[in-house]
Amino acid sequence: MAAPLSKSPLFSAFRSSSSSSLPHISRRNYHVELAAREKALLEEDPALKKFRSYKKGVKLTSKIGTVLTGVAVAACSYQLVVKAMT
Q: N or C: less crowded end of the chain, CB within 10 Å?
């Protein structure tokens, strides 16, 4: 039976070299402060406020499309069941 890959010398050498390169920095807690450009991009843009109603219209249209798709699928399924029974 073959030995597991995790116990192979090649894998252990790779694991030891990657973990010893940055022992003091944890991947989970590493955080870099945002620069001025990123902060400016995340701020709300007053020029785009007039397009808020557009977003609401898109959401409403999407919901209507989803409902109509469901109705069409239900109608087709009903027609198939009716044809199968007759």
A: N
